[in-house]
Records
---
Amino acid sequence: MSTTSALAHRTATWLLSAALAALPACTVGPPYQRPSAPAPAAFKETPSADSTWFPAAPADTLERGPWWQLFGDPVLTGLVEQVEVSNQNVAAAVAAYAQAQALVREARAALFPSLSLDASATRSGGAGSTSKPTILQLGLGASWEPDIWGRLRLSVTSAQASAEASAANLAAARLSAQAQRATDYFARREADNEIALLTSAVSAYERSLRITKNQYDVGIAQLSDVLQARTQLETTRANLSAMIGQRALLEHAIALLIGKPPSELSVAVAPWDARVPAVPLVVPSDLLQRRPDIAAAERAVAAANAQIGIERSAYFPSFSLSGFVGGQGSTVPSLFQASNNVWSLGLSAAQTLFDAGAIAARVEGARAGRDLAVANYRQVVLTAFQSVEDQLATIHSLAEQDAQRRAASADADRTEQLTLNQYLQGQIAYTGVIVAQVIALSARQTLSQLMLNRQTAAIGLIQALGGGWHAPDVDDAGATAK
């Protein structure tokens, strides 16, 4: 090797060593801290210790398995578990998460040198001249951009935070689909219950119509009594048909949630287990780790914070190292002869001297993006606390209504029977029977809908508490990204 070549080699080596030494020393990204958010010491609607509307439950109930098992319904369990593998919204969230993970791997790859293999064969000639021998060239090239200012590492951090936000969005999509699936399932069971109530009412009204017609035939009742009885019967039949149609729509919604066409799903009629499970509460501050939407919003802040450093890095010069080693000759064996070997090492630097404030504008835009993400995060937190409080208040109200609605339904059933007996004895007009029948059926349907509302509110509270999901520790996630 000549003196000049040796000097160039030592210079390139020194420059490379200097770049490597400076690599961990510089970073232009602002340190990240989780944004502060209002977190009350306790929920306003938390039930008291002696409350009867919210039975006690172990605090770790939601951690021990799928939350829908709290309802103890094997049919529900089988259907909700199909949401995981068949629901297309969940499948889209899974694909988005996989895409975000691929972007993390792409960002990490930029931290390492890239290698390329170059090969060429050239033969030239012209009119009136003999052709020149073929020139073969084979070489291995390398290039690397040292991450002196931390721009590439911040890109990895931003991509990692975005991937974690995608994971939280996946959990939110899964929880939403599961909650909607359970809600539709219980609505379907309530529809079956109302169909049974209406079917029973139709049978009772048919008996009343026969009795009224018999009394009319012997001159005891009036024609208006028969017409009123028939109107009541036909109206109830129409309501029954409408409820059967509603039941079919709910079954179609269930099929959609598990990714099947409606023709491939049929939920058999079965007794409705209307019990309401005890849903364990959590400390309000824990909600920040239990709600996937909160975790996604917080990770969006982390990604936006890293973006500030990425934009700041444009203030500083960028460096690039390149190298090449190979051979050149007229035959393949000559490519590997020492006399034909060629090599090169290079270091290049670039610095923006004037851009009319473009870099400053991008940095300010990144800061504004972070402020926007922080505001969105705090709004999501406030909305989460409101959601929990709303569900607790709803559960409280429905629990207090339960005993009252049951008593009202029982009294209405008794009134209906007494009124019918009085009519048969000629003590009252048939209008009184119609009114009593309408009130009794309405009370039964209201009680059925109340039981559904209590189960729906329990599902809503589970969803508001984040189900059984927990956000990963932010410090651990940051260490992994680094």
---
Amino acid sequence: MTSAPMVKIPAPDGKAACALFEAEEEAQPLVEAGGSAAELFDKLVAQGCHMDAVRLLAFNLPRREAVWWACLCVRDALGEAPAPEDLAAVAAAERWAAEPTEENRRAANELAEALEFETAAAWAAVAAYWSAGSLAPAGSPPVAPAPEAGGTAVATAVILAAAADDPAVMAARYTKSLARGADIARGGKGMQV
């Protein structure tokens, strides 16, 4: 079986796609087996290594697409009566994904801080903040985020969104989240799920 190419993932192969994170022990043989990032992703999903499949996408999608994916997953998990603070945080992350200005990036971080980084929506917002620019206060010498920071925040948002409910719902959320992410990686918008 040949996996559809993930045109948004620049890594030359699956092993290179895992360079910024350490795959879980049960996923290591799949990583070492070789193949494209798309093939590895499909194998991780088939083997139930959902967190590693999330990380593969979170660390390798372009930052805007990764943040957009996190926002879609968080919105899927918010439910019928979301907290206004969570809605504001995910909306701020969406604004940055649509228009990655410094103002939008810093606004997203303010909302993540207000939520004390405790919710999936907060992590979607911090993903926007950690994806570009400087982490130092405005007017200070720039401090770039670590290369893995944005991917870590995206993965945290997606995993927290999937894990928000009981195990039966969690499995369905992972399935939907991974399908959205795969669609984005293959050039879609994550909406055809």
---
Amino acid sequence: MTEDDRALVDRFLDMMAAEAGASRHTLAAYRNDLERAAEDVGGSIGTASPQNLATLGQCWAGLSPATVARRSAALRRFFGFIVDEGLRSDDPSASLPRPGLERPLPRILDEGEVKAMFEVLEDKAASGEPTAVRNLAILELLYGSGLRATELVSLPRGALRKGQPFLILRGKGDKERLVPISSRAEDAVEKWLEHVPRDSLWLFPGGKRHLSRVRLFQIVRDIAGLAGISPDRVSPHVLRHAFATHLLSGGADLRVLQSLLGHADIATTQIYTHVDSGRLVELVNSRHPLADRTR
């Protein structure tokens, strides 16, 4: 990447942080995709022509459709920025590859499998075993509130206040959202706090800081294995999907679900209507005003 390109990318990422509220991880991903694209173009991306960009389809032939789509999206946003800033008069991004993508349905667990995960921990936690008490609190928050992995591990020690049935979280894009906390989760966290040092900054301390995302992933898989569920089917995000799908099955409104999950676009939430299409058909057949009419 040329020095001019680096300066442009820095300005672009400054904009993404200030105006779009992009997280540190998102900014790093944009930088990486733009640097890889510069290598593949073999020159400056800031001055790349439509013909230069058209060659990327062949360069990226061995990549997955999702990776191609992500890199193309990064370049489109980058070119849109430099055109808006008056640093370039034309936008060459129409020549970028556009792979056909179908959004995959999320992996989910059925209610019986989630129940089995709780049961395997509840017996151990009842005896006061600290690891089981911690893991039960983790499971209650992941499945009971739909927290993202990063949101959970970075919870401060005093995040939950007795008698306050909700959390105020900062999620993706530094956006705040209200998350309900069940009485079960409140009880589980209260029991876990008895094992957390009073001077700890974090609800789930680990090492010098808080529990890492990698360790959280391992914990969730270990619980699944104890419950007789294939560990490779389970992750913190799968429990978040289960939270959403089971709420929808119970009759939750899609807009409410969007708010609980912290989705900026309801199109992201709508994927759960495909997962639970059977319930939606039954809902129309039983609740629609015409359901009681006969031909």
---
Amino acid sequence: MKSRTFGIVVPLLGCSLLAGCLVGPDYVRPAPATTPPAFKEMRGQPAATAAVPGVPIPGEWRPASPQDMADRGAWWSIYNDPLLDSLVSQVEVSNQTLKSDEAAYRQSRALIRQNRSALYPTISASGGPTEIGTGQGRSSGSSSGNAAQFAATGSLSWEIDIWGSIRRTIENASAAAQASAANLAAARLSIQAEVVVDYFSLRVADESRRLFEASVAAYQRSLQIVQNQVNAGIASNLDLAQARTLLQQTQAQVISATLQRTLFEHAIAALIGKAPAELNIAPSKITDTVPFFDAGIPSTLLERRPDIAAGERQMAAANAQIGVAVAAYYPNLTLGGSLGFLSSTIGALFAVSNSVWSLGPQLAGTVIDGGARGGAVDSARAAYDAAVANYRQTVLTAFQDVEDQLANQRVLTQEETVQLQAVASAREAVQLSLNQYLAGTIPYTTVVVSQTTALSNEQTALNVRLARLTASANLVKALGGGWNTTQLPAPEPIAGLTQR
């Protein structure tokens, strides 16, 4: 009997050790829908010449900016603002959204270990006393018909992964964990960029408040001039009302800029994991230099953006799920065994004569399922096709992001140059109109218009500067912020699997 049992078990164990049969398609990374040879917005632009040490991203910083040699790993350091550096560095430590994403990644890693456990036997044990009663004992009114029995049992169950269902499941979980890691990197980069943009928005609010306060002082002087003119009978009360209106309107803008600054400070506090009461940012001037850089070759973007990497890993996970669905067509082979002891006395429980054991394989499979397995395979293939489409759309969106920010970088630089010229002209117009009003050659309405136009141009210049800084931060974000796929955790080593 033993020889027959081992004659069955040994070949099955050999099959389990070989386990060379992995049903379902092996993963091959699909190509993007399209990959242009160069970014449209970089054509005809002068190339940078200064290499960035320690940065694995192709495309160098333009030498025109003094921040060119900054390491793009801490990419926000290109702005040479120690306070900004301090704020962004707190994102990794304190941002609660990022902590949630990190916990999701750890959860996905734990799921791999949970799935891998199915590759190994499950061993369980039980034991305890049992009192067995008979009808004879109860009918005689005594307990002599009862007998105590002691039992101890151990069992083993091992599902042999002949068709690779378990390994495909682990492959799916491993790729999903890598996708989770890429999503974590994407979330980190997004929050870092948001802190940078909010910080510069706060600095522009500082500049706006200074601009409005300077304008208030200038308008107060103008109001005094008009008051003197009215007192001398040269000007009318209408001129006085216009001057007062412009002054009060600008005073209201000072209050509005103060509110905007406060809200941006609150937003930064939340992003770095602090309550607004815990953060106070002193007023300061905005940076005078906006760094320029090129985007490198479009094909390298596939390795530099964490969202693209997440999409690619999600394709791998979906591909593995097809194998899981296909494996359901084949029977499961389970090796089971048990060893038990039964005795009326606990001292003799583990005697060989009181042992009972069993060992043998079991095949189990579905004969008729009404098309459930076929539907599951079709569903898995459709999910894979959807993952491919999502990946390709993510790549296209990434190309668009880079092109948009390159266009912003180029066009906003030109716009700022012209806008600053408009500011200078508007300031000159204010001085000329005020002189002509004092000479009595123009009405005060002309002065009001020139002052309003000058203030509007000053505001526009500040907004263009903010747009340039925002575009520079968003361009680094669009390029992956120094991240690349080598930073993904390695896939779990699983024998017999084709790894990425």
